[in-house]
Specification:
The protein is 32% helix and 20% strand. It contains twelve helices and 17 strands. The chain has a six-stranded mixed beta sheet with strand order 2-3-1-4-5-6, with helices on both faces. Helix 10 packs across helix 11. The longest helix has 17 residues. It is elongated and about 85 Å long. The N terminus and C terminus are likely disordered.
């Protein structure tokens, strides 16, 4: 099932460049949509939970319902906005006070009246008291609920939230506050590797806009989804390009947003295009995942274009082996060969995610951990540095924070001198820990403490 059944839904509708994304960011309280003067920047439907009013609601930002963006995308942008309108309990119809009424505003007003949904008419960009006189120009559109705001300067936003509370369906049961937030999954990769197609195949709806144009997804798009009672948020990120190929400021912002999405995700799904194989840019993105200590899964997409007539299993094993070799620094990430186009193996993602979640809850007993690591030291002693050798006195696994998903697995090692640990020996110890418990998809962090800190740290 898609979305959260008990959560009311509010959609922001308007022609391009009236400030829908600025209003979205202001209501949500954080920057999710990219704001830029270029019309048509928001080409997907963005969604996020708004908790600033009396009751929480799902807020949708749509692309400009008419125009805005390349000709090939216009129909998809319109379709995405109309779908948001159909699924919403309340519409925020946004216009630009400083531009006045345009024919497109009049056409949209007519369309929204036909929908018979409650509408709040939001006259945006009333940035200064002298702009308030401009609001009267819109009286001819005749909406019962109207308000002047400045999304950029936070003028009129509390009053707008109050109007939203009054018009939302009543009797919504609030979700318990002690529940964990939804599992946040960032779907990342180079431009045009099929990130949006993978998400559409997962949620089985055209929620993310798919186009052959590289860089179609410019924002990091949060897509809420429920499966078997578990809540997910899939973050469809802008394709990460090499720095020399970011031609516009929008591209730069998109890459920054993708990198931020990695940091706020619980798990990252790295999409690799099978037809081009693992590239240097794929490795760089994998490095960002490793540097952020994030749980990870690698999906080798476009299997439908690569699939042989026979010997399928042998080819899959070879592809997985090659991907693991080239992405060795996230060798903890399981690799799935799939096709977003045909849906083949996409459902297996949830089984893998379930395995990652189960492994994240496994704690290695202190006795087992110490016996295993001491055996590792005995079988393969650490190298000497400046005539000294690393010695292990004691090891323990930290408990982690219970309110967060898929945290890195942290192990504290009390040693004679942390500076004596080499990168190669660190990887060796991590591998020995995985022999005790594989911890599929989860990074391991070794924190070394000198012996004198043992009492206070433990």
């Amino acid at each position: 099932m898609d979305g959260t059944p008990s959560m009311p839904s509010v959609a922001i509708i308007g022609r391009p460049n009236v400030g829908k994304s600025a209003l979205f960011n202001r209501l949500v309280g954080r920057k999710i949509a990219i704001i830029h003067d270029q019309p048509g920047i928001t080409r997907d439907r963005l969604s996020a939970l708004c908790t600033r009013g009396a009751q929480s609601f799902q807020l949708w930002d749509t692309g400009g319902i008419i125009g805005g963006g390349e000709t090939q995308l216009t129909a998809q942008v319109r379709s995405a906005a109309e779908e948001a309108l159909r699924q919403s309990d309340l519409i925020l119809f946004v216009v630009d006070a400083q531009q006045g009424i345009l024919p497109m505003d009049t056409e949209l007003a007519r369309t929204l009246r036909k929908s018979q949904k409650p509408v709040i008419f939001v006259v945006n960009k009333v940035d200064h008291p002298r702009h308030e006189a401009l609001v009267a120009d819109f009286d001819s559109l005749s909406f019962d609920h109207a308000i002047a705001v400045s999304a950029e300067h936070n003028r009129g936003i509390p009053e707008l939230l109050s109007k939203i509370d009054n018009l939302l369906p009543s009797g919504i049961t609030p979700r318990p506050s002690n529940l964990k937030p939804p599992l946040a999954i960032a779907v990342i990769g180079r431009p045009n590797v099929g990130k949006s197609s993978v998400i559409n195949a997962i949620v089985q709806q055209q929620r993310a806009i798919v186009s052959e144009l590289p860089g179609t997804t410019r924002d990091a798009v949060d897509i809420s989804f429920e499966r078997d009672g578990q809540q997910f948020v899939f973050i469809d990120t802008a394709g990460i390009r090499r720095r020399g190929k970011r031609s516009t400021s929008v591209e730069v912002f998109s890459v920054m947003r993708a990198e931020r999405s990695i940091r706020r995700a619980d798990l990252c799904i790295l999409i690799v295009d099978l037809t081009s194989g693992v590239t240097a840019q794929d490795k760089r993105i994998a490095g960002l995942i490793q540097g952020a200590h994030k749980a990870a899964i690698v999906v080798l997409n476009k299997w439908d274009l690569f699939k042989p007539n026979r010997g399928e299993n042998r080819v899959i094993l070879q592809l997985v082996h090659e991907a693991r070799e080239q992405l060795f620094f996230i060798d903890y990430a399981p690799v799935l060969v799939a096709s977003a186009q045909t849906g083949e193996n996409v459902a297996r993602l949830f089984r893998i995610i379930g395995k990652v979640e189960r492994d994240s809850r496994v704690h290695i007993g202190t006795g087992v951990l110490n016996r295993s690591l001491r055996a590792a030291f005995a079988a393969n002693p650490p190298p000497t540095k400046s005539g000294k050798r690393l010695k292990l006195f004691y090891a323990a696994q930290t408990s982690g924070k219970q309110d967060r998903h898929l945290q890195p697995l942290e192990f504290v090692l009390f040693v004679n001198d942390p500076r004596l640990l080499t990168d190669q020996y660190r990887r060796y110890l991590e591998a020995r820990i995985r022999e005790v418990q594989p911890y599929v998809g989860l990074p391991i962090i070794l924190m070394l403490r000198p012996r004198e800190q043992r009492r206070s740290t433990a």
